From TrEMBL:
This is S-adenosyl methyltransferase. Residues 244-256 have a biased composition (Basic and acidic residues). SUPFAM superfamilies: S-adenosyl-L-methionine-dependent methyltransferases. It comes from Virgisporangium ochraceum. Residues 243-266 are annotated as: Disordered. InterPro entries: SAM-dependent_MTases_sf, SAM_dep_MeTrfase_SAV2177_type.
Length: 266
């Protein structure tokens, strides 16, 4: 298989990968046959999957605008994905040119592409790190050069916590971010919801995901709520992504397979 120039030698392009599958779902070009095949199998199980991906990305844009309007000028976007339409710095800096953004992802393709589009942006950077090691991210010199943790910051964990299995104690990981950020900071998440009666096809996709570097761990709304311990939940609470501060007059079809929530650190 030919390797395009944008993919580093260390990247295994024979195994599907969450960043590239999501890129394909959103209509991007940084993906391979193995990712497209994976997405198409998943789409058999969840026929609305492409709409779910777009609805999640639209929520990301709305929540960044909402946070910017609330006065937030620093963003730590963890599990940021391969840059695509409506990246955090583009949304935030449209309203607040001084807004500062650090993108973090474990995937080398996402990070190298982020670094290349941010080369001329002094207020934003991209680093490679694993969200399960918050101390490495919070103590990273590039994070310290862009974000002042003594001032309010928005930590974004959008469509990524369902790639953290229970064994890795996601609530404790979130608590580490919570304890490191200033009062008045925010945490914004979206998270895949457990289907109480999954179809055989859905179980098969879950098995397929187990063979990727990022197996999927969907959760119930109650389990997701427990992860926001210590934050004050912003209205309207934990809701389908399409229902989190929708655009006025929006007729977007409700997508209940992924929920959104924003918490404020008191
Ligand atoms: C579905 S994409 C979401 C991208 C973006 N946050 C959005 O919602 O549009 C999930 C991203 O999380 C990244 N990811 C998965 N596990 C991660 C981890 N442990 N640490 C950092 N990033 C991770 C993947 O590489 C992928 O780019």
């Amino acid at each position: 298989m030919d390797r395009p120039g944008w993919v580093a030698d260390e990247v295994d392009i024979t195994v599907p990968n969450a960043a590239r599958i999501y890129d394909f779902a959103l209509g991007g070009f940084h993906n391979f046959e193995v990712d497209r095949q994976f997405f198409e199998a998943a789409e058999q199980a969840w026929p609305n999957l492409r709409l779910v991906a777009h609805a999640n990305r639209a929520y990301l844009r709305r929540v960044v605008q909402w946070l910017t309007d609330a006065g937030i000028r620093q963003f730590l976007d963890v599990g940021s994905g391969i840059p695509t339409l409506g990246n955090v710095h583009e949304v935030a800096q449209r309203t607040a040119p001084d807004a500062r953004v650090v993108y973090v992802d474990v995937d080398p393709v996402a990070v190298s592409h982020g670094q290349s589009i941010l080369a001329d942006n002094p207020n934003a950077c991209a680093i490679r790190a694993d969200l399960r090691r918050p101390e490495e991210i919070l103590g990273h010199p590039d994070v310290a050069s862009v974000i002042d943790l003594t001032q309010p910051v928005a930590v974004l964990l959008i469509a990524v916590l369902h790639f953290v299995p229970d064994d890795d104690r996601p609530a404790e990981i979130i608590a580490s971010y919570r304890d490191a950020i200033a009062s008045g900071s925010y945490l914004a998440i979206s998270h895949g919801v457990t289907d109480p009666a999954p179809s055989d096809e859905q179980e098969r996709v879950r098995d397929l995901y187990r063979r990727t570097p990022t197996p999927i761990s969907t959760r119930t709304p109650e389990e997701i709520a427990a992860m926001l311990d210590g934050f004050d939940l912003v209205e309207p609470g934990i809701v389908p992504v399409t229902e989190w501060h929708p655009e006025p007059g929006s007729d977007e079809e409700p997508q209940r397979d992924i929920v959104a929530a924003v918490g404020r650190r008191p």
